[in-house]
Amino acid sequence: LSAMIHDPKAIAxxxxxxxxxCMPCHGADASGGIGPNLTDKEWIYGGKPEExxxxxxxxxxxxxxxxxxxxxxxxxxxxxxxxxxxGSGK
Length: 90
Fold this sequence. Notes:
The protein has 90 residues and is mostly helical.
């Protein structure tokens, strides 16, 4: 995961995963909607790569479902790298 957050291909692949799965709740530009804004540095569940993976994998008590069975570990890592690049990783 630490290598993926610096890998342009992993981030691009994560962008595609985001567009297919996360965009309906977080918005096309990830600035929020049903789900929170992912482009800022204020993170409800933590903005470190491992925390993003945990949130995507397990979901949250506030309504985000677990994506473990739909995406699997590789795509979750990719989307975490992409999301990290949006706000927390800047």
